[in-house]
Amino acid sequence: MPLKKILLFFSVLTCAVLSGTPRIGTSPFALSLTQHSVCADNLKGQPAEEKTKTVSRPEKISTSDVLLDNAYYASLINDLSQAHESITIIMYLFKTTNYKSGLPDHIVDMLIKKHAQGVQVSLLLNVDQEDTAHGVRDSMNDTNLHTARLLEEKGIRVYLDSPHRTTHAKVIIIDKKIVYIGSHNFTQSALRYNHEVSVRIVSPAIARELTGYMEAFKHEK
User: Fold this and answer.
1) Number of C-beta neighbours around residue 181 at 10 A
2) What are 109-162's pLDDT values in tens digits?
3) Has residue 60 got a pLDDT over 90?
4) Which 8-state DSSP code applies to residue 155?
């Protein structure tokens, strides 16, 4: 996603949050996963005016909470546990460790549990085709693909973005109204140790915008 579009999107969310009363809380990949080509470059070949299109200002936000550092995980896992309809996730990095204390592993367990209860769970994870001199992308790909396999083995739908475009977003949408968006990846470092900032927003309008954003990727070749 182009930097300009990211900045414009976060600008809309920031304005919406500030207008409310925020509260501070404590080889191409040939896989038996969801088709790898679902998230091709959606701007290639489009006219210039389409590339600068902004997200419309959403309706009033009923609740907004700023979640600093590890306050994010406690809030998120609580909302995930209460989901009864749908969970949609767009995540740059989802790193499971197979350790009992691993917070990303706890999220995986919760997603599997909610799927078994009939909640519709789907994810879009980032993969990159080209490696770097230090193997960073290759390592990240292995990490995301490992988590994707864990989830798909339990019947959860996982989509992979285009290897030619980085999906750097970190977004969770719960029951079509609760949105988490910010800097937190699903890694042990981000969820437990890092300085991170995210926002929890209750807004069906923003949830629709972001769900549509993911859905558009899923239908691209």
Assistant:
1) 20
2) 999 999 999 999 999 998 876 554 444 456 778 899 999 999 999 999 999 888
3) no
4) T
H helix runs in 82-168, sequence order: 103-116, 136-152
Q: Which of 142, 153, 145 is nearest to 111 (CA)?
A: 153
pTM of the model: 0.71
In the DSSP assignment, the letter for residue 92 is S
CA distances from 52 to 1, 5, 78, 118 (A): 12, 7, 37, 39
Cβ neighbours of residue 104 closer than 8 Å, sequence gap 6 or more:
94, 95, 96, 97, 147, 186, 187, 188, 191
Q: Identify the CA nearest to 127 among candidates 88, 97, 158, 172.
A: 158
Report how far apart, in Å, the C-alpha atoms of 38 and of each of 34, 136, 149 are: 8, 23, 17
d(CA 217, CA 181) in angstroms, rounded, equals 18
Helix (H, G, I), strand (E, B) or coil at 40: coil
- Looking at 42-94, which runs of residues are DSSP E strands? 63-68, 86-91
Tokens of 188: 């042990």
Q: Which two tokens stand for residue 68?
A: 């600093």
Q: How does strand 120-125 pair with strand 86-91? A: parallel
Which domains, and CATH codes, for the chain?
3-218 (3.30.870.10)
Q: What's the one-letter identity of residue 58?
A: P
Tokens of 210: 């972001």
User: Which residue is associated with the tokens 């988590």?
Assistant: 147
